[in-house]
Amino acid sequence: MIKVVLYGPESTGKTTLSKQLAAHYDTQWVPEYMRQFLEEKWNLKEELISINDLIPIAEGQLKLEKAAAKQADKLLICDTNLLELKVYSEYYYNDYCPEVIKSEATKNNYSIYLLTYIDIPWEPDILRDKPNNREEMFHIFEAELKKQGFPYKILKGNKNERFNKAVEIINALLQN
After folding, report:
1. What three-state secondary structure class fits 78?
2. Which of 21, 22, 65, 94 has the fewest CB atoms within 10 Å, counting from its CB?
3. Taking residues 70-95, what's their average pLDDT?
4. What's the pTM?
């Protein structure tokens, strides 16, 4: 199965694009569990992420991905993965990331990472907090891909340009 993961800084269009791609290919997509988890936490307790949330978020993301993979045929679109959680964990918690997350995040279980660039407007919400350091975060995300040696392509441009480039990349993978 071809597994494509949208990966990159906050507010760079990952969710929008992952939904579009899944609809285009009539396949399953895996939502970002961290967003679901943290929105629910905020709504119930008005609390943001804590270091104790990392393992439950990782477990939830893997559970969603496994369930979607069972329903997908040739292609699975993932709106993030554990490598993204690893990057954020290390960024926000002084290079700390639980070993179980590091171990799973550094397995190359994906055919391609589509790294979303910061050239679309930042949209605020309760979970987003870094509108002024998106370029720094982009470079951190890209450096992690290079460090791991994972295959990736950068998606730039407006929503249509990103979609068209992603389709071109995925079509090439489907033809192999």
Report:
1. strand
2. 94
3. 95
4. 0.93
Q: Provide the CB-side half-sphere exposure for 99 (13 A, CA).
A: 0
SS3 content of the chain, % helix, strand, coil (to 5): 55, 15, 30
Domain boundaries, the chain: 2-175
Which pair of tokens denotes residue 39?
């929105």
Instruction: Tell me how many helices (H) and strands (E) the chain has.
Output: 7, 5
Categorise residue 101: left if φ over 0, alpha if ψ from -120 to 50, beta otherwise.
alpha
Instruction: List the 2-7 sheet strands across, edge first.
Output: 28-30, 75-79, 2-7, 112-116, 152-155
Residue 135 tokens read as 């370029």
CATH hierarchy code of domain 2-175: 3.40.50.300
Question: CA–CA separation, 138 vs 10, rounded Å?
Answer: 9
Whole-Å CA distances, 139 to 10, 50, 160, 168? 13, 24, 23, 24
Paired with 75 in beta bridges are 2
